[in-house]
């Protein structure tokens, strides 16, 4: 079958978001055409519609936890994304900056040079006075990862959630009063005109890391995305899979019975999440991510383990069981930067 479609990858934009940074590193241009969307849901829509071969979405952060917008789309409680699955993961070290305009009233003595010591003090000190800042824009994840800094230096200042950190940077730059700031990445500071760096590394922890998923449409001829380089250079393959399901709401031990299937098949769990099922109040849809060992689709043992799991959970039973993909474990790896 001839494929005339351009190789497009959708990501949460605008340019200079963390999603853009990670997408560029894994899907270099001009080989890949990158398509910025306004929301995470748009990424799912574009991939489901077949208008992009892949989509890149943030899934979880080491400091602040699951990105609920992404989990909500994966939950797909209205059966809109029935063809979407995860085929890859990418880890990104995330260091946030406070960007805005330096207060022209601030005396120059208040602007301390930034000490680049090896062990950074947390929360890090602002580079200049922040007394003029009245509002801060950012993605809710970035606010959640920078709580110590905000609490110490910007207590009581209005925090405004927006769709991405790069959108936040654009909004702060557009405020001519100079009283708005954004929490965004260093790349936003250089790509968005008219912003000064007011503070560096405002994240609560130095090891702040976000894991992104690469999604695709099942059944499409899948050209695997380019492999990311490894921190240690090794290419040994452990694979992970993700499933979602509900269990009988009023049966004691129903969730334990499903989890017991993973135990019996020696499938090590790597994450568990839940969201309201929207079937009835306080019933939950569960997401279980687990190690499968070899390459699903190419390794007989891995395929058999997945088949056995599917069979076993049917007898327990798990309801609304959905297989959301398998991919190579990149937890010790980073994208090309
Ligand atoms: O808003 C962005 O830049 C994103 O790509 C989402 C996000 C926000 C905070 C940390 C990592 C990803």
Automatic annotation (TrEMBL):
Keywords: Amino-acid biosynthesis, Aromatic amino acid biosynthesis, Lyase, Phenylalanine biosynthesis. Residues 8-217 form the Prephenate dehydratase domain. InterPro entries: ACT-like_dom_sf, ACT_dom, Chor_mutase/pphenate_deHydtase, Preph_deHydtase. It is an enzyme of class 4 (lyase). Residues 243-321 form the ACT domain. Residues 105-124 are annotated as: Disordered. One of its GO terms (biological process) is L-phenylalanine biosynthetic process. Pathway: Amino-acid biosynthesis; L-phenylalanine biosynthesis; phenylpyruvate from prephenate: step 1/1. GO terms for cellular component: cytoplasm. Its EC number is 4.2.1.51. It comes from the Eukaryota. GO terms for molecular function: prephenate dehydratase activity. PROSITE patterns: ACT, PREPHENATE_DEHYDR_3. Pfam families: PDT. This is prephenate dehydratase. It comes from Rhypophila decipiens. The lineage of its organism: Eukaryota, Fungi, Dikarya, Ascomycota, Pezizomycotina.
């Amino acid at each position: 079958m001839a494929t005339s479609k351009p190789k497009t990858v959708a990501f949460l934009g605008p340019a200079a978001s963390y999603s853009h940074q990670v997408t560029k590193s894994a899907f270099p241009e001009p080989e890949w055409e990158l398509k910025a969307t306004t929301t995470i849901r748009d990424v799912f829509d574009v991939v489901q519609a077949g208008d992009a071969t892949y989509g890149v979405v943030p899934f979880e952060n080491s400091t602040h936890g699951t990105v609920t917008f992404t989990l909500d789309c994966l939950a797909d409680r209205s059966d809109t994304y029935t063809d979407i699955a995860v085929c890859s993961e990418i880890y990104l070290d995330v260091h946030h900056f406070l960007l805005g305009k330096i207060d022209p009233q601030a005396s120059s003595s208040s602007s301390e040079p930034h000490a680049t010591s090896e062990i950074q003090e947390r929360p890090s000190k602002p580079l200049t006075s922040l007394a003029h800042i009245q509002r801060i824009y950012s993605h809710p994840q970035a606010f959640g990862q920078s709580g110590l800094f905000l609490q110490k230096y910007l207590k009581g200042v209005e925090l405004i959630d927006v769709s991405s950190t790069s959108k936040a940077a654009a909004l702060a730059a557009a405020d001519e009063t100079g009283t708005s700031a954004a929490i965004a990445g260093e790349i936003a500071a250089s790509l968005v005109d008219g912003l000064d760096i007011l503070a560096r590394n405002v994240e609560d922890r130095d090891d702040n890391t976000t894991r992104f998923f690469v999604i695709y449409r099942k059944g499409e001829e899948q050209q695997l995305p380019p492999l990311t380089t490894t921190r240690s250079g090794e290419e040994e393959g452990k694979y992970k899979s993700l499933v979602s399901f509900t269990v009988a709401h009023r049966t004691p031990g129903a969730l334990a019975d499903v989890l017991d299937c993973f135990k019996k098949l020696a499938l090590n769990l790597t994450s568990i999440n839940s969201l309201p099922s929207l079937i009835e109040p306080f019933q939950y849809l569960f997401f279980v991510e687990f190690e499968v060992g070899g390459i699903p689709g190419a390794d007989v043992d891995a395929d058999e383990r997945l088949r056995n799991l599917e069979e076993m959970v049917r007898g327990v039973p798990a309801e609304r069981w959905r297989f959301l993909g398998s991919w190579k474990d990149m937890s010790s790896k980073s994208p090309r930067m």
